[in-house]
Structure formats: structure tokens, C-alpha cells
Specification:
It contains nine helices and no strands. It is an all-alpha fold and 191 residues long. The longest helix has 18 residues, at 142-159.
Length: 191
């Protein structure tokens, strides 16, 4: 059956990826996506497509990752797998920002954040707030960046998610260099 075969091929891709054999992993993931799409089970190809997007982003092929992430959003069953949709939108926003498409990044992060709030996904919400803050930081809008990064810090402290701390420290240094206030000094003192 195509579903079982596609799942096995995807796992072979995962093994190749972990061995550092990225070209082989790409081939396996592409085969798995095709097999699982042909299995006609809604969303079956999402896992290998996500694996391809990660592989492309890590290889610096961000535009290809964007294409794959947009394809994932197109095949997601409407109204289902909303957390997955939120995570995919976050990854797409990050990719847009990496390409310098800041308007698209902000819109995409906002869409992810709306889903994550609806789904009560605190860690996802923290990541999207961080993504928005980092985008505003890249735009030089330091006070707006600080507001979003402080919200991300609040979520991180509640969920024990340490990922936004470095971004917040970077934004804080940027705001201080620019002579502006940083509002979270009591929450996150600079080491």
C-alpha cells in the first residue's frame, strides 16, 4: 500500500538526513511526498514536505523552502491540523524575513499568532511574537520590536521556553545603543 511505502521512504529520508546525507534525504523525502499524495489520504504528504522545507532552509535555499511551505498550506485540510498550520505559517514568516520580505513576514506571523491564540498554543504564540519582534528589529523599529519581544519573553517565562532570550537580549542592546528605554530590565537583566 502506498501509505505504508511512503512512510517507510520518509523514514529512510530521516535516517539519511541524520547521517548528513542531505542529497539522499532530499530524494527520499520527494519520493515519500509523491507516494503519500497518491495514497489519497488528506494531509498524508505533510511530513515529508515539512522535512523538505527544513532541509532547504538549512541549505540556504530559502526561496525553495518558501515554495514548499506554501505547498504545505495548500494541501492542509481546511479547519484541521490548526497547530500544524500555525507552525507552518511561523516557518513561512521566518523564511520571508530571511529573504527580506518584511511585510509578508509580518502578515504571516500575524496569521500564525491568530491561530496559536485560538488553539491556546503558548509556545507557538511565543515564537510568533518573537518573529514579529525580530522583524521589527530588522526594520529598525526598536520600540515596536521591544514590545513584541517583551511579550515573547513573558510567554517564555511562563512556558520555560528559552529560545527568545537571545533575540530579546539583542534587541535590548539595540534599543540601548539607540538611546531608547527597555521595559523588561527587571525581568531580564543583561548578564
Amino acid at each position: 500500500n502506498r501509505f505504508a511505502l511512503g512512510s517507510i521512504v520518509n523514514n529512510l529520508g530521516y535516517v539519511a538526513y541524520n547521517r548528513g546525507e542531505h542529497a539522499a534525504a532530499r530524494g527520499y523525502y520527494q519520493q515519500a511526498a509523491a507516494l503519500l499524495a497518491a495514497a489519497e489520504e488528506p494531509g498524508a504528504e505533510l511530513n515529508p514536505l515539512s522535512n523538505l522545507a527544513v532541509l532547504d532552509a538549512e541549505a540556504g535555499q530559502v526561496a525553495t523552502a518558501v515554495d514548499t511551505l506554501e505547498r504545505i498550506l495548500a494541501v492542509l485540510p481546511p479547519g484541521k491540523l490548526q497547530r500544524y498550520r500555525g507552525d507552518t505559517l511561523f516557518n513561512l514568516g521566518t523564511s520571508y524575513r530571511m529573504l527580506g520580505y518584511t511585510d509578508q513576514a509580518l502578515q504571516t506571523f500575524a496569521a500564525a499568532l491568530a491561530i496559536q491564540r485560538e488553539e491556546e498554543d503558548a509556545q507557538g504564540r511565543g515564537r510568533s511574537l518573537r518573529g514579529i519582534g525580530e522583524t521589527y528589529y530588522a526594520l529598525g523599529e526598536l520600540e515596536t520590536a521591544t514590545q513584541y519581544l517583551e511579550q515573547a519573553l513573558g510567554v517564555a517565562l511562563q512556558t520555560n521556553d528559552g529560545r527568545p532570550h537571545e533575540a530579546i537580549a539583542t534587541a535590548r542592546r539595540g534599543v540601548e545603543i539607540a538611546g531608547g528605554p527597555f521595559l523588561a530590565t527587571d525581568l531580564y537583566p543583561l548578564a
